[in-house]
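Duplicate of #3305? Posting structure anyway:
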């Protein structure tokens, strides 16, 4: 051992080095894990205490931990009859008499508690807490030996032998006193690895550093320095002994952090040496991860706490040294844990007891017992799971360090999962009771007692987890933000305030129960980019402050950054290799894992024979239907409020747990048919209502077979009135398997032949998950009737079963500030496209403005010359500076195909620029035909000028405009694609090659009948017509092929005079149906689309769109019916002789439409033309550019083909993002027996550039609307428009007075 003088000399040297090392950055860094000078750091903790929870979920939990838990635990430490934790230090310090009592790692547990206190003090500056810490620290300092060693069992025994450990002069005076742990012949310090000395010393070092950073006091830090010097000397003089005692190696992390805190390279040498000596251990164990050299380990093994502490310590070493081999090991191990060995809750170490390696060898001496351990891949029992809370905390340490060194968002997703679902369950809601292990199931019939209790305890004999739990949770705010250079990472959400010398930000969010996040930036000196984590997706979204030209600027005071994350409940299944979870599901909502306690099973109607002695139903008896619909309700337990999930489950009355016979191992399955209501609560909230309550995270599931059970459910809705997909006479069902590597068209042909040959009446095409890249649309003909495409469910776009028109763009090369790639050919021809997706997110075509509120305004329109005058500044970037002979400015070659997007009342036009003439500060722009002729001849909608609100516009599709990250430009002359990448972005680029993915092509006489798509995603299309002919629409995206003003106007009976004529065309859609009956789209998604989403074009009847999502669509989400045939002037009554061409009987139910209409702003979420018997109900429509639902066509009162339509109980909010003259629900034409009822319409956008800021409405019956009942629709005010309507419209009880019961039922519901 080193002498006291030797120790002091090195301590002073270290402190001097520390002063020089850290003083310049103290104000900016000094975080929980301070990698501000680490070689491989990609982000750095904010200063300790700079983030505080101000309320909400984490604020409430922090209040319990800081005001109740810390003090309640102190009472435990300070009550010798319960725990000798503090008394041991008092005895070791000479301030009390007695013997050591308790486990040998109790010292480390008290250090962890003190670190929790220090982290709280950094936020609260609680003086009582400060005084309490000082009291404990004084005893630690007195108990510590002069050489830096402190372990109360040894020090107490030394005192009893009369040895003054504070006066040791040299090594020969070292005591040789044994301790009670270990064999009788084991003597002195480090007599047994199970004494946990290095574990305790590591926690002392970490606590000392955190305490000093939080308080500025060095009392405990000086003790930590002495301990670090002791370990350094131990490494130099007794290397083998130190290697043997590396158990639960907290000192690995501590050594690296001490190096960061002091700058003393001896501590980095210590950190390196601690890893190196593991490789020298003889007869090592998988249990302790030292059987093999660390750099040969690529899988997680052995004791999970020891493993995760080791991995975190290695991650610290990598951060300082940059040794690539260490990162290879760590990445592989982390992946092994995350993708093969971890519980959905984040639980680590599945096994109480096991063997390694796997017990598969006959070489018995090589087999070792392991406990609290990572077992085999996918070996994840539920009722017998170990999952020591300390292991989950170790995974936080590892994942956070991996995040700091890689900036890979997968790691912070793991940190959040561990905090919410892995660590938070370790403490009761009142903050006074703790788990040591965490089971995922507890049932009354479990046949044996586990080693550790399955209910929380006030005090556990192995008390390592409770203070560690408090430490991790009291430090949660330290993970919320990180910084590096000009980038600030936003990692966690909740009400908080971040304040440092340079940054002041306030976040408001009800997360993790409310997905809405609002960040107010008060100060962000030198911060250019915010990286917002997208929860659960393993990625960040980069957000930068930019000026009107898209150039990065600083953040203005008061800037609000807002995002809303998905919080819909979802059923989660395990990999089928997890044997215990086969045919079971878990439930998640946002980041929270839910569970079922049997006190939340409504047993009121369940027979007594099905209940246990407490009158409850067992969780083992509950079956969750795969299509269960959850109702979100507020629930409170022990003063903590959260969102619970209520739903209707199933129970097998004749097959319950209570009905099993004593000596019965197997029996005939009893069907689960009885419906019972269940309420699921967050997993962290379980075991707060009695130890006799059963609980399970994983629940049995009934997976409805789609063709039978799912459709039977739909049929039972009654209102549909038609037979879906498989009729009763279709008794023989055939199956065709198809994978992404095979041809879907060939599978359709095979199914067609099976029906033709009589081998099946109906055929299921089972589609494996993956991307089905189409080279042409899949065409379904009448011969393909009675066909079901069954995909794989997914929770987000670009996952599951995907039909896509995407062509990958690869080979990107750096060219200045751009990345450039060759545009691939498609089917042997050069590609052209108007849309692009990078990393599954829409990229923007290069345009002149990034903020639409900053769009320039036109100055004048010369209809005779077909010219629009605009500010010259808006187009100068497109010009070379020279002129041609006609006086027109010469346009740059890379701007030759530029377009103007012109905002006009309720629509936008895309106009291809032909010429530009500069005159002073103005520019005259002319355009190509045919759109120029239409734009200047058609009367409506028209651009506004010489008025208060001249029409805004922007220029796009030119390389000089490519100046914002996330923008792109396709140079069709050179077939080059230019892209300005976002920071840290990987280039997974999809260019759309197709306009349509699937076509139903029936005829009047022979329709495509009973075709179903289920769990299929339709993605990545474009619509190229505007690139060749421009786009001048009339309404809902229907473009004008010819249009002009009439003089004189035409008199019309029962209608006002007609002053214009228009003939229309229809945009392409991802899926188009012509003459299809009983077509069903169930649980599908339509997204990343450049035209319309789903279009029932002509002659479709009795179809259904159920539980599907429409998101990121350029134009309309769903379209149905004729909008006047191409040859019929659109103001004339539509009365076809053959009514079979009219679309009727479509049911759209329980769907969600969001971020549709995001390019063609005059389109709608749902656009219905000449239709009848429509039923649009219980859908959720939000974040759209114009009206949400448009129903009807024709602009006249004449009785045509429309009738018996119904729009009911839809929730519409956040609409009219870009256009006014709109409404949540808008109608046209005469529609007898049509009812619009019980809808909720609210939260309209207020863009600054609309043509008339007052011309928006909640309900709007426009020209010719007749015979429509509007009843019980809730709106925040009675702002309705009735414009040139026909007779017999009835308005009843619409407005804010509508009953709350009606409002609550609007939107998506359970079925």
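Output from current build:
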């Amino acid at each position: 051992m080193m002498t006291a003088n030797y120790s002091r000399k090195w301590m002073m040297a270290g402190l001097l080095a520390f002063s020089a090392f850290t003083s310049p950055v103290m104000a900016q860094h000094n975080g929980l894990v301070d990698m501000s000078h680490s070689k491989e750091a990609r982000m750095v903790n904010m200063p300790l205490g700079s983030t505080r929870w101000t309320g909400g979920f984490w604020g409430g939990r922090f209040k319990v931990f800081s005001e109740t838990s810390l003090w309640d635990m102190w009472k435990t430490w300070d009550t010798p009859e319960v725990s000798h934790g503090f008394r041991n230090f008092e005895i070791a310090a000479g301030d009390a008499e007695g013997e050591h009592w308790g486990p040998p790692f109790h010292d480390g547990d008290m250090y962890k508690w003190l670190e929790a206190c220090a982290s709280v003090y950094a936020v609260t500056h609680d003086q009582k807490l400060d005084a309490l810490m000082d009291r404990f620290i004084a005893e630690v300092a007195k108990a510590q030996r002069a050489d830096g060693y402190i372990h109360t069992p040894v020090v107490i025994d030394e005192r009893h032998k009369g040895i003054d450990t504070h006066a040791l002069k040299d090594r020969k005076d070292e005591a040789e006193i044994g301790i009670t742990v270990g064999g009788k012949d084991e003597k002195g310090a480090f007599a047994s690895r199970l004494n946990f000395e290095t574990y305790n010393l590591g926690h002392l070092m970490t606590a000392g550093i955190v305490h000093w950073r939080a308080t500025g006091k060095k009392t405990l830090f000086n003790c930590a320095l002495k301990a670090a010097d002791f370990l350094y000397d131990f490494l130099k003089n007794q290397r083998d002994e130190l290697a043997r005692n590396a158990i639960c190696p907290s000192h690995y992390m501590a050594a690296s952090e001490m190096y960061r805190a002091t700058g003393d390279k001896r501590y980095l040498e210590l950190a390196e040496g601690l890893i190196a000596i593991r490789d020298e251990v003889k007869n090592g164990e998988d249990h302790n991860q030292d059987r093999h050299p660390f750099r040969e380990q690529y899988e997680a093994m052995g004791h999970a706490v020891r493993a995760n502490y080791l991995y975190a310590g290695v991650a610290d070493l990598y951060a300082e040294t940059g040794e690539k081999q260490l990162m290879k090991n760590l990445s592989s191990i982390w992946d092994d844990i995350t993708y093969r060995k971890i519980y959905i809750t984040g639980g680590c170490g599945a096994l109480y007891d096991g063997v390694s390696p796997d017990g598969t060898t006959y070489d018995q001496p090589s087999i070792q017992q392991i406990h609290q351990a990572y077992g085999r891949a996918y070996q994840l029992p539920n009722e017998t799971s170990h999952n020591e809370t300390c292991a989950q905390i170790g995974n936080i340490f590892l994942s956070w360090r991996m995040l700091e060194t890689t900036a890979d968002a997968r790691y912070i997703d793991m940190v959040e999962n561990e905090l919410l679902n892995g660590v938070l369950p370790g403490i009761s809601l009142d903050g006074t009771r703790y788990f040591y292990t965490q089971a995922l199931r507890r049932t009354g019939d479990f046949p044996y007692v586990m080693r550790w209790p399955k209910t929380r305890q006030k005090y556990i004999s192995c008390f390592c987890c409770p203070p560690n739990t408090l430490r991790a949770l009291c430090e949660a705010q330290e993970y919320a933000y990180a910084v590096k250079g000009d980038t600030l990472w936003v990692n966690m959400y909740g009400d908080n305030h971040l304040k440092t010398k340079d940054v002041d930000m306030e976040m408001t969010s009800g997360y993790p129960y409310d997905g809405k996040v609002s960040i107010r930036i008060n100060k962000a000196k030198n911060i250019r980019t915010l990286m917002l984590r997208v929860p659960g997706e393993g990625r960040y979204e980069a957000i930068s402050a930019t000026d009107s030209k898209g150039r990065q600027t600083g953040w203005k005071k008061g800037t609000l950054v807002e995002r809303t994350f998905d919080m819909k409940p979802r059923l989660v299944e395990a990999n089928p290799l997890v044997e215990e979870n086969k045919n079971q599901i878990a439930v998640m909502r946002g980041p929270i894992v839910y569970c079922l306690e049997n006190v939340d099973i409504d047993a009121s109607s369940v027979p007594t024979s099905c209940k246990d002695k407490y009158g409850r139903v067992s969780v083992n008896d509950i079956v969750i239907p795969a299509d269960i619909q959850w109702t979100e309700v507020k629930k409170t337990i022990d003063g903590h409020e959260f969102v619970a999930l209520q739903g209707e489950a199933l129970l097998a009355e004749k097959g319950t747990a209570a009905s099993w016979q004593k000596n019965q191992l197997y029996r005939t399955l009893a069907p689960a048919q009885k419906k019972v209501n269940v309420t699921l609560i967050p997993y962290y909230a379980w075991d707060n209502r009695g130890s006799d309550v059963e609980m399970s995270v994983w629940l049995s599931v009934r997976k409805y077979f789609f063709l039978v059970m799912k459709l039977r459910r739909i049929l039972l809705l009654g209102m549909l009135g038609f037979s879906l997909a498989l009729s009763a006479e279709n008794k023989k069902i055939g199956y065709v398997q198809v994978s992404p590597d095979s041809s879907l068209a060939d599978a359709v042909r095979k199914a067609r032949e099976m029906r033709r040959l009589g081998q099946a009446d109906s055929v299921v095409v089972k589609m494996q998950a993956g991307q089905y890249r189409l080279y042409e649309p899949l065409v379904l003909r009448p011969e393909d009737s009675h066909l079901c495409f069954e995909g794989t469910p997914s929770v987000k776009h670009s996952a599951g079963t995907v039909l896509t028109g995407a062509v990958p763009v690869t080979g990107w090369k750096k060219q200045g500030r751009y990345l450039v790639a060759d545009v691939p050919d498609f089917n042997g021809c050069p590609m052209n496209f108007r849309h692009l997706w990078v990393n599954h997110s829409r990229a923007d075509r290069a345009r002149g403005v990034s903020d639409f509120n900053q769009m320039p305004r036109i100055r004048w329109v010369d209809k005779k010359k077909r010219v629009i005058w605009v500010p010259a500044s808006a187009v100068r970037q497109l010009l070379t500076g020279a002129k041609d002979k006609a006086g027109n400015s010469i346009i740059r070659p890379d701007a030759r195909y530029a377009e103007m997007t012109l905002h006009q009342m309720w629509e936008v036009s895309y106009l291809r620029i032909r010429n530009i003439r500069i005159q002073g500060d103005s520019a005259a722009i002319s355009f190509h035909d045919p759109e120029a002729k239409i734009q200047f001849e058609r009367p409506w909608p028209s651009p506004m000028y010489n008025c208060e609100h001249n029409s805004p516009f922007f220029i796009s599709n030119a390389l000089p405009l490519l100046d914002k990250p996330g923008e792109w430009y396709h140079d069709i002359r050179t077939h080059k694609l230019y892209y300005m990448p976002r920071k840290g972005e990987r280039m997974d680029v999809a260019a759309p090659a197709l306009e349509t993915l699937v076509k139903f092509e029936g005829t009047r006489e022979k329709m495509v009948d009973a075709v179903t798509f289920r769990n299929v995603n339709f993605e990545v299309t474009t619509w190229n017509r505007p690139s060749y002919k421009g786009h001048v629409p009339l309404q809902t995206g229907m473009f004008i092929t010819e249009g002009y003003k009439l003089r004189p106007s035409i008199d019309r009976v029962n209608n006002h005079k007609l002053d214009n004529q228009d003939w229309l065309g229809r945009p392409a859609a991802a899926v188009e149906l012509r003459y299809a009956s009983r077509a069903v789209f169930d649980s599908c998604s339509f997204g990343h689309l450049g035209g319309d989403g789903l279009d029932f074009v002509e002659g479709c009847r009795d179809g259904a769109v159920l539980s599907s999502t429409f998101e990121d669509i350029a134009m309309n989400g769903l379209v149905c019916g004729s909008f006047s045939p191409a040859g019929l002037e659109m103001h004339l009554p539509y009365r076809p002789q053959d009514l079979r061409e009219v679309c009727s009987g479509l049911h759209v139910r329980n769907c969600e439409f969001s971020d549709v209409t995001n390019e063609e702003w005059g389109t709608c979420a749902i656009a219905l033309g000449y239709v009848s018997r429509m039923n649009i109900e219980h859908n959720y429509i939000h974040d759209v550019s114009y009206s949400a639902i448009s129903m009807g066509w024709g602009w006249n009162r004449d009785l045509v083909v429309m009738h018996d339509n119904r729009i009911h109980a839809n929730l519409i909010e956040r609409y009219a993002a870009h256009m006014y003259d709109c409404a949540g629900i808008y109608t046209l034409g005469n529609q007898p027996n049509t009812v619009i009822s019980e809808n909720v319409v609210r939260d309209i956008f207020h863009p600054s550039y609309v043509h008339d800021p007052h011309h928006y409405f909640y309900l709007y019956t426009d020209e010719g609307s007749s015979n429509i009942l509007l009843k019980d629709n809730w709106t925040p005010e009675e702002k309705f428009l009735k414009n040139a309507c026909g007779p017999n419209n009835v308005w009843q009880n619409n407005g804010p007075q509508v009953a709350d019961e009606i409002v609550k039922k609007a939107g998506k519901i359970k079925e």
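Confirmed duplicate; merging threads. Confidence is low (pLDDT under 50) at residues 1-28, 167-187, 704-730. The first helix runs from residue 4 to 22.
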